[in-house]
Design goal:
globular, 20-stranded parallel sheet, 4-stranded mixed sheet, alpha/beta
Length: 936
């Protein structure tokens, strides 16, 4: 058999010339036929909408039912309505002869004209004679051509490729636009294997799907099928709900009717959200634009907070438990449950138990673990006999932050059972997670590499810590922890020395002592990063011993601790390289100082360091990338000893350094992207230049900062005195966070030009600056990424007009002593223009008790509310403020004498996430406040 790509211009005995005309460009004008070309010439771009191709007649007849009928003499000129749709392609022949049946025979013709989809037919011909690899770029033409030309083998190959592609879950291997286009084609032509595979593929890759720009273009029926797929994979229920709400909002646009019935489609899609697993703050925020759905979600969450166990026990079928199951599939990589105070241990265990277990047994097991008593272990034995707990090896991260009602001993058992490949565990802002829990975690999950147990001490101060009444049961439970751990079925002879934890964050943990730190030092083989910021019970001696043992540490956050001279001596003492250490900066095995290998060191607020100790430490920091010496004893003498050139982050705020020591560092650090120098008065230079210790001359601070780097995060004050906009370009073109404080005054023309100077600006803090309506209005209108705006103690002619514009990206607004004119009408306009999660107002003396309702209804998802010297807002109590169920931080000072005596217990009861409540006795209506029972 001769190849279709061989031969001269003539037609061989077993060859046929196919003149293919693209059906989308049919013309009534007569044109001469193009010269025939071989199949191999179809690989490049086609010169015209008509192509003549030489092909092997036998191969065509053998591979395609269409060509078999056409070239074999049995092709009918008028196909019946019941025939496949591919017979829409119309053969037009030269010299054809009608047979007795009314069909036309091409069996003896060497030249055939057909009108069809040119791209699809060319792809099929290439497949028949020079098969290409199937990709998402040629799949649709191949599928279309296979259907129209009835190429059975190609259809089988297309189905095999598409199903194999649908099984891939590591990432979106094909563009979402391709899936949408294929879905529309499959619906039109009844390609069932595509319709079957698309929902599953989108479901298991849903995290990547929702991040695509084409997500809003997904057709309604495909999205519905995806929502109902059992392996729908998301990081959190919040992520799924956000995606649905975004799709619904986008589908309302008039350019494309994606929703057949808007009301019904909204109800159907929103019904797929497991509302009881939404974070409380997020659910409260939904009320802003989806009132009915948001109110329903908040009510359900609050009811679960009252008695989640009873809600579970009330379910009478396994299907009813689905609404309480966390979405964990074989494709899950992250489980994020942060911000769900309603979450209890029952939810965790129900989500990982085999689906074939009896629903009653599931509830018994979950209930037993939630109590934390020894009786749970007999039930565990029963579980092992019945079936093994489902294991999810792809899950590498679990986040239980702000989940105060979880029994952490049982939660750690849950981690052990369900996630044998877990690498990261986060449980920040959970006061009930004790050091004993951490020990148990290290014993039972030695494969974990990163643990975050931080507490935000900017909100909770240790001496004012209050354990609320809703935690009394858990407090009692914690006293029984030892018995729980002793009887745990997972306790094995694993010791922390075998743990692989490399990153440990204990920020704000005031229960951590030197003894605890000594136990942590058993992680000497793996620990590389430690954050013990605000761990005030630790001593310099305890920190020193940790550093002495854990010599692999290269990143430390020690701010506001007792870190001092003894720890510095440990860091700077010479030692020998561990033979097992693969640290790239020390190829030999000679003596070295541990400080010389530090990459991150934060010592903000460490007052126990003398000048000599600081000088010794800084002189050994050779490769450090992130250095914070804010509010320390740092001087020019110490900073001049710094010889590193790898700095990316430098904070020397509130120190006495000058340009003599700072300028050389700025010149050497070409990768510096964060510089913070607020409060450094000595940066001022009376002359145009300064001379460093080595005799080199440098320019002023302004000259150096605007000629050296492309910064992303800056905090500036003294010595920063720009005059022209050109002073900022291009050094500030990448700035995302900017703070300008005392010691400088930025001209209005520069403030007005900030959106152009810093097009990526996300956070702006202005203190003691002169501002105007035009400046503020232009910032809100033009800075499309601005999330944080803080105006503190600013002067100028600012009025309400400056804020009368939309700022959809703004989330945090702090106006301290800059808006004395603010009224309730102004506050209402604010609620319409921006969706805040944090609001701080000071000096707004025209506000009254009606302001509470405006704030709570306009921003139901507030997490932080600070009101100081704000008229008579609380003169009638605080009932409306307590309607902001997501509040974590509340400060009320000089806002009206009307706050009742039971405010603390009321706030604890009504605000499940509350972590700080700051009140002033001046506002107490009965002279003081009752404090809750600590349960002791």
């Amino acid at each position: 058999m001769s190849s279709g790509g061989d031969g001269g211009d003539g037609v061989a005995a077993d060859e046929v010339v196919l003149e293919i005309t693209d059906s989308s460009s049919l013309s009534t004008t007569s044109t001469p036929p193009p010269p025939p070309i071989p199949i191999s010439a179809l690989d490049g771009p086609l010169p015209s909408p008509t192509v003549a191709v030489r092909a092997d007649r036998s191969r065509l007849i053998e591979s395609s039912s269409y060509f078999r009928a056409l070239l074999g003499g049995s092709f009918r000129s008028a196909p019946s309505a019941s025939e496949p749709r591919e017979l829409r392609i119309r053969p037009i022949s030269r010299g054809s002869e009608l047979d007795s049946s009314g069909g036309c025979s091409e069996s003896g013709s060497g030249y055939v004209q057909i009108s069809c989809n040119l791209e699809a037919t060319v792809q099929v011909l290439r497949y028949l004679f020079e098969p290409p690899a199937i990709t998402h770029e040629n799949f649709l033409p191949l599928l279309e051509g296979a259907l129209f030309l009835a190429v059975e083998n190609l259809l089988v190959d297309c189905e095999r490729w598409f199903r194999n592609m649908g099984c891939q879950s590591s990432s979106m291997l094909v563009p979402l636009d391709f899936i949408i286009e294929v879905w529309y084609f499959a619906q039109t032509h009844g390609v069932t294997f595509v319709q079957d595979a698309c929902p599953g593929y989108l479901a298991q890759n849903f995290v990547q799907v929702i991040s695509s720009r084409s997500f809003a273009r997904i057709p309604y029926d495909l999205l519905c099928s995806t929502m109902e797929f059992p392996h729908l994979t998301v990081d959190s229920e919040k992520q799924l709900c956000e995606a649905i709400l975004f799709w619904l909002s986008a589908s309302i646009r008039p350019y494309e009717q994606l929703v057949p019935n808007s009301a019904d489609s909204q109800l159907f899609l929103l019904s797929k959200v497991r509302v009881c697993l939404l974070p409380l703050g997020f659910a409260a925020g939904i009320k802003r634009n989806w009132v009915e759905f948001g109110n329903s979600a908040v009510c359900m969450i609050l009811n679960l907070l009252k008695d989640s166990l009873q809600a579970l026990l009330g379910t009478d079928a396994d299907d009813s438990l689905n609404s309480y199951r966390i979405r964990i599939t074989e494709y899950s990589k992250k489980i994020v449950l942060s911000g769900c105070p309603q979450l209890t241990t029952e939810f965790l265990y129900i989500s990982v138990l085999p689906t074939d277990l009896d629903a009653i047994f599931k509830r018994r097991l979950a209930s037993s673990y939630s109590q934390g008593h020894s009786r749970s272990f007999s039930l565990y034995v029963e579980l092992v006999k019945k079936a093994k707990t489902v294991s999810f090896r792809n899950v590498h991260m679990v986040d239980l932050s702000k989940c105060p009602n979880v029994h952490f001993g049982a939660a750690i058992d849950w981690l052990t059972l369900a996630f044998p490949e877990l690498r990261t565990f986060r449980s920040s802002h959970c006061l009930l997670f004790q050091f004993e829990d951490l020990q148990y975690l290290l014993l039972t999950c030695p494969w974990i590499k990163e643990v975050d147990l931080s507490i935000d001490l900017s909100i909770i101060l240790p001496k004012y810590l209050i354990i609320s009444s809703r935690f009394e049961a858990q407090s009692e439970m914690n006293r029984n922890m030892s018995s729980y751990y002793k009887q745990s079925p997972y306790r094995t002879p694993i010791y922390p020395v075998f743990s692989k934890v490399s990153k440990l964050t204990l920020e704000g943990r005031n229960d951590i002592t030197d003894n605890n730190l000594a136990e942590i030092s058993m992680l000497d083989k793996s620990l590389c990063y430690i954050n013990i910021k605000h761990c005030t019970l630790l001593t310099d001696d305890g920190i020193s011993k940790l550093l002495l043992n854990c010599t692999k540490i290269h990143s430390m956050v020690l701010s506001y601790t007792s870190f001092g001279n003894q720890s510095i001596q440990t860091l700077c003492s010479l030692d020998y390289l561990d033979p097992s250490d693969s640290f790239p900066y020390h190829k030999d095995e000679g003596p070295y100082a541990m400080a010389s290998r530090l990459q991150e060191l934060h010592l903000e607020g460490c007052k126990g360091i003398c000048c000599a100790g600081m000088s010794q430490l800084v002189s050994n920091l050779n490769i450090v990338k992130s250095l914070c010496l804010r509010q320390t004893s740092l001087t020019d003498g110490a900073l001049c000893n710094f010889v590193g050139s790898s700095l990316e982050y430098l904070d020397i705020s509130e120190t006495v350094v000058s340009m003599v020591s700072l300028a050389p560092i700025m010149r050497r650090s070409s990768n510096l992207c964060c510089l913070k120098t607020t409060g450094c008065r000595n940066l001022l230079s009376e002359h145009g230049e300064v001379q460093s210790v080595n005799g080199n001359k440098y320019g002023s601070f302004l000259q150096e900062i605007t000629s050296t780097f492309c910064l992303e995060d800056v905090e500036l004050g003294w010595a920063f005195c720009p005059v022209r906009i050109d002073d900022f370009i291009p050094s500030f073109s990448k700035v995302r966070k900017m703070t300008v404080g005392l010691g400088t005054t930025i001209p209005e023309n520069i403030l007005h030009g900030l959106p152009d100077i810093c097009p990526f600006l996300e956070s702006l803090v202005l203190r003691f600056q002169v501002i105007s309506d035009s400046v503020v209005r232009n910032l809100l209108e033009s800075s499309m990424n601005l999330h944080v705006l803080c105006l503190q103690y600013c002067l100028g002619s600012l009025t309400s007009f400056g804020f009368q514009t939309k700022a959809p990206a703004l989330r945090i607004l702090r106006l301290q002593w800059v808006t004395p004119w603010m009224t309730n009408n102004d506050l209402t306009i604010f609620t319409l223009n921006c969706n805040l999660v944090e609001l701080c107002l000071s000096g707004c003396k025209l506000l009254d008790s009606s302001s509470q309702e405006i704030i709570s209804s306009g921003w139901p998802n507030l997490t932080c509310l600070h009101l100081e010297e704000c008229g008579q807002i609380t003169v009638g109590g605080v009932s409306s403020i307590l309607n902001c169920k997501a509040l974590e931080d509340v400060l009320l000072r000089h806002t009206g004498r009307g706050i009742g005596r039971t405010i603390i217990t009321d706030a604890i009861r009504e605000l499940p996430l509350l972590r700080q409540l700051a009140l002033d006795l001046c506002d107490a209506s009965e002279g003081g406040y009752d404090t809750p029972n600590r349960g002791r």
